[in-house]
Design a protein that fits this description.
This protein is of the alpha+beta class. The protein has 3 domains: 228 residues, BirA Bifunctional Protein, domain 2 (2-Layer Sandwich); 78 residues, no CATH class; 90 residues, no CATH class. Helix content is 59%, strand content 9%. It is built from 16 helices and 8 strands. The strands form 2 sheets. A 6-stranded antiparallel beta sheet has the order 2-5-7-6-3-4, sandwiched between helices. A hairpin with a 2-residue loop joins strand 3 and strand 4. The protein is rod-shaped and about 215 Å long.
């Protein structure tokens, strides 16, 4: 169950001149007869609103007026559906005709006529039956049928009959004109009852509907004050910001006149109702004098007890079934100065109060202005950050491009290094092959060198012996015979030696081996590059 605060207040409009002025103002406000001056409101310039007393602050948002409701005999309808002329008619019917000089004259006539009739009764200027008849007429407080009374009075025999009939007619006519008037002009003409859920509770239309608010207040007034007609019931939901989703507040107006007795005794009826409530709560010691003669403390307690009665009713018939519970606001948090200020504010015109629609609009506008300035500052900061980011992005793009170029260079370098490595590997393979050939043919090479040296020795011997043909035949076969055992690194030397010896067969053999070896090396290199 969620505890919420509820605003419930009553305001009495009297028959006197000041009361009628207040009644006219509050009814015009309730019926939205006075249109707000749209050219007055400047959201961030309070000075332009309060620059003179003739300018008033708008009390509602005209753009939200279609949310307002009014109860008519046919049911609850939008207030906008009622024409301006009809609204004026409703106001005038509640206000009633103004009682001015005519009422005072009427009272004078009644007093004089009554005095004259009493003198005739006391002096027995009228017959005894006529005296009894006139005494009953003077004792009546209700409406008197003048035609019937005069017809009956005309039947009596008396002197100066025409004069006495005229005097009785003057009394009856003046009496009937005053029978529905209050005894004093300080009597309650009508009472305004306000029912509102404060904004701080954040109660929207999903929790409680506007129609339910109206029906709840109507039920309360009907149950506790059944003999005092509800003159007007209106709900306002335009005294808010357009962005807010809150339930409206209800204005109820009940007549101060008892529809059964015709007496203006609403205050007495409310005191009696409060006393009954206090007796039910075993608080009889707090009961008040039902004559209406109360102390100031008791008078101030009337509204408090009515609030307690209203809270219990509204919780039972509206709130509790929706998970809500109306409780009294904590007044201990308020200082005496705050309470005095609230009381003083309640006495002022609504447009002059510190807490009303126009001031809320100004406050929200000021908040919006501050937020806008803050947003502008944030936007400026964001723009600077964006510019800085763009500069950093440009630098990053350049760095990326440079990195990509360096990457390409590195890739090319890696490719070149791969080629170099391949060539080096080929050279190493070739060297290893040569080394292998050398290692594998060491014994044969040693034999070849030995035979060559031996042959050269014989060649020199045969040459010195002038036996040239033996010398040539002796060395060339040895060269040809051992050429297959030679490693590649030694073959050039043997080739040169064969050229000097003019042995063409050996030279051709060595040249052919060189060509085959070159072709094999090229094929191996191509395969490695692939």
């Amino acid at each position: 169950m969620k505890n919420i605060t509820t605003f419930f207040s009553i305001f009495n409009c009297l028959h006197n001149k000041n009361g009628r002025a207040i009644a006219n103002t509050t009814l015009a406000h309730t019926l939205r007869i006075t249109q707000p001056k749209k050219n007055v409101l400047h959201l961030n310039k309070l000075e332009k609103i309060s620059r003179s007393e003739t300018n008033f602050k708008p009390e509602w948002n005209e753009d939200l007026s279609h949310f307002n409701l009014i109860e008519l005999p046919d049911g609850i309808v939008p207030l906008n559906s009622v024409t301006s002329l009809e609204r004026h008619g409703v106001k005038d019917s509640i206000m009633g005709p103004e009682k001015g000089r005519g009422v005072a004259d009427c009272r004078i006539i009644k007093t004089k006529s009554k005095s004259k009739l009493n003198d005739w009764i006391k002096s027995k200027a009228l017959p005894e039956d006529a005296c009894s008849f006139v005494s009953k007429v003077l004792a009546s407080t209700a409406y008197i049928d003048a035609q019937e009374i005069l017809n009956q009075f005309d039947k009596f025999e008396m002197t100066r009959k025409k004069q006495r009939i005229q005097q009785l007619f003057n009394y009856v006519e003046s009496h009937n004109r005053q029978v529905h008037l209050p005894k004093t002009r300080n009597s309650i003409h009508f009472q305004e009852v306000l029912f509102k859920i404060p904004l701080i509770n954040e109660i929207g239309l999903e929790a409680v509907s506007n129609q339910e608010m109206m029906q709840a207040l109507k039920g309360y007034l009907t149950e506790f004050y059944p003999y005092y007609p509800i003159e007007l019931l209106v709900l306002h939901n335009d005294e808010r910001l357009a962005s807010e989703d809150i339930v409206g507040h209800v204005h109820g107006f009940i007549s101060g006149q008892n529809r059964v007795t015709g007496c203006y005794d609403l205050r007495i009826a409310q005191i009696k109702c409060i006393n009954n409530y206090l007796r039910e709560k075993d608080l009889s010691q707090l009961c008040m004098d039902e004559s209406g003669k109360l102390t100031r403390k008791q008078s101030s307690a009337i509204t408090y007890h009515m609030q307690r009665m209203f809270y219990e009713y509204i919780n039972k018939h509206l709130f509790n079934s929706r998970g809500l519970n109306a409780v009294f606001a904590d007044q201990t948090a308020l200082t005496p100065e705050d309470l005095a200020k609230r009381k003083n504010q309640s006495r002022q015109a609504k447009s002059s109060r510190d807490y009303q629609h126009a001031m809320r609009v100004l406050e929200e506008a000021e908040k919006a202005k501050i937020k806008l300035e803050s947003t502008k500052a944030e936007q400026l900061s964001a723009d600077k950050l964006l510019e800085k980011t763009k500069i950093e992005q440009t630098y990053s793009d350049r760095l990326l491009k440079k990195t990509q170029t360096e990457h390409i260079n590195v890739v090319n370098l890696v490719h070149e290094n791969k080629q170099i490595i391949v060539e080096q590997e080929s050279t190493i393979i070739q060297n290893n092959k040569v080394l292998s050939e050398i290692e594998g043919r060491e014994e044969n090479v040693a034999k070849v060198i030995y035979e060559m040296l031996r042959s050269m020795a014989f060649r020199d011997f045969f040459t010195s012996s002038k036996r040239i043909e033996l010398a040539e035949k002796y060395l060339s076969p040895i060269l040809y015979r051992f050429s297959n055992y030679l490693p590649d690194i030694l073959k050039p030397a043997f080739k040169k030696l064969a050229i000097e010896l003019k042995d063409e067969s050996v030279v051709k053999t060595l040249d052919k081996e060189d060509m085959d070896r070159n072709y094999d090396a090229e094929d191996n290199l191509k395969l490695q590059l692939r």
